[in-house]
Structure formats: C-alpha cells, structure tokens
Specification:
Helix content is about 40%, strand content about 25%. By secondary structure, the chain is of the alpha+beta class. Strand 11, helix 9 and strand 12 form a beta-alpha-beta unit. Helix 6 packs across helix 7 and helix 7 packs across helix 8.
Length: about 300
C-alpha cells in the first residue's frame, strides 16, 4: 500500500516536469510516458504510451532514433544527441508549438528489465530557442557591423568552398577587389560619418548588380572583395567595369552635400593551378595596385 502511494506521488511529480520523459523498449515500444507539461514547447505525448515509434513517426526518423536506443543499451552509458523534427509528421495531438523543432535527447539504459523488456529512459528537451540564438550569433560573427555584408573570415571560408567546386565540378569563379579612390580625403574633408555613409551606400549600389550566389565582403577599411560564382574572367571584367561606371555616376549625398566617388578594381579568376585561395586573391590585389598606379578609377586584370 505504501509503495502504491509513493508510486502515485512520483508519477504526479514527473507529470509536472516541463520536459517529456519516456521509457522506451529496445523494440521501440513506449512503455511509459511522463512529464512534457509545457505546451509552449511540446505537443501532449501522453497518447504515445503503449505505441511503437514506427507507428507514429516517419520510418527514417524511427530508424535513426532506434539506432540511438540500441547504441545506449550496448554501451551501458548516457547517450546525448540532438535532432531536428518536423512535428506535423508525428502522429499525436497537435497542441504544442508546431513546425520544425530542435530537440536534445538524453538516453540512459535501465539496469533491469522494465515490463519484461530491455529499455532506456529518455529525457527530451526542446532546444529550438538555443539553436536560433546560436544561428543568430554565428551570422553576426560573419557580418561586418558597419555595412552588414560578410566579413573577411566568412569570405575566405566561402571562397575556399567555391574553389573546391571549381576543381570538382568545373564551376568558374572570379574575384574582384575594389577600393575607394582617395577615401582618406573623403574622411578628412567631410568627416568619418560621411565616410561611413559612403561605404554603406557603395554596398547598397553594388548589391543591385550582383547575382544571388555572389558574395560581397568588406575586406578591410574601404576595400571590398567579391566572389563571382559561375562567372568567367571575361564576364567578371565586364561586371567590374559596369560597377565602376555605375558607382562613378551614382549620387552620393550626405547631409545635402554631394560627394564624388570613384573606385579602382582588380580582377582575377580561379585556374587549374590554384591549390588555395591565396593565389587568386593575390592576383586580384596586384591588379588593384596596378589600377591605382595607372591613375585610379579603372579596372585591371590580374
């Protein structure tokens, strides 16, 4: 009698836990379902008790999860892992947050049989909010805070991937580096806030001419670098020249002051001899230097 009372107390306590707690057999039967009281995070899983995971989940997910159950039973250790789940594809009452959610599972093997079966306990925790925050922080770590384009770090990672695609799939990739002519003069004459405006406006104008796969990044100071995916050197030179002319003709107006702007551009492309991105960038950088040496406001190929 005393045991029955204590069991009722423990069950009641478990059912107040926000996160769901399951006992799952090695065959995928949900032998016990407790907790999961927080409806802002979970659908009501109480109906899963007595059902098999293959009955209410998609086969791909069920096989994945049962693989983790077997791994836990074989190791005899705590097994923690994360997974993403489209909740609409799980057959249970829909009264939770809905949509695609991220979860962390904590599986632990029971030392004795439960209802005559080998089983694990499984605590499931909704970590969608944490994942969203991590993604936002990751995106922020790749952005230039002033212009909101990619920063140097992100660009180098992306260009490395694009160079690999060039070698494996023969997708051409070109690089252009552009630099504002006499940017120091702009800062000295009109102030640094005006200089910041010029950088942001340059980005806005440039983005309108670029295709979706292309990546523009602030490489440092008033220097920007662009990777052009699927663009050969001839097309890259045409685009660079168009960009130079468009920016030269664009009206840059800061606090009712018209500020003239021209840029110099260096262009290069990936070749079969490029084993890393440094050589591609180096050629574009040298071409930029040549454009400046030749009088600025022009495009050169490296």
């Amino acid at each position: 009698m005393e045991f029955r009372k204590m069991f009722d107390v423990y069950t009641s306590l478990f059912n107040t836990i926000p996160d769901p707690f399951f006992v799952i057999s090695e065959n995928g039967d949900y032998l016990e379902v407790l907790g999961g009281a927080e409806r802002s995070l979970y659908d009501d899983g109480s109906s899963l008790k007595g059902r098999n995971i293959f009955d209410f989940s998609e086969p791909v997910f069920a096989r994945f999860f049962m693989g983790q159950v077997r791994k836990t039973l074989e190791s005899g250790l705590l097994n923690c892992f994360e997974y993403q789940l489209e909740t609409s594809k799980v057959d249970l009452p829909k009264n939770g947050p809905g949509g695609t959610q991220w979860f962390e599972a904590r599986l632990y093997p029971l030392s004795s049989l439960f209802q005559g079966q080998r089983a694990v306990t499984a605590m499931i925790i909704n970590i969608s909010e944490r994942k969203t925050l991590q993604q936002k922080l990751r995106e922020l770590s790749y952005l230039d805070p002033l212009t909101a384009v990619a920063n140097r770090r992100f660009f180098l990672e992306r260009l490395s991937e694009e160079l690999e695609s060039y070698h494996t799939e023969k997708i051409p990739v070109s690089v252009l580096i552009m630099d504002i002519d006499h940017f120091k003069h702009i800062n000295d004459s009109y102030g640094h806030l005006a200089g910041d405006y010029m950088l942001k406006e340059l980005v806005l104008v440039s983005r309108k001419l670029l295709n979706k796969p292309d990546t523009i990044a602030r490489f440092g100071g008033d220097e920007f670098i662009v990777s052009l995916v699927g663009t050969d050197i001839g097309q890259a030179l045409e685009l660079a020249e168009k960009l130079r002319v468009v920016l030269q003709n664009h009206e840059f107006v800061y606090e009712d002051i018209h500020i003239p702007l021209t840029i110099s551009i260096g262009v290069s492309d990936a070749t079969e001899f490029d084993t890393d991105i440094s050589s591609i960038i180096s050629r574009a950088d040298k071409a930029l230097y040549q454009a400046k040496e030749a009088g600025r406001n022009r495009t050169h190929q490296g």
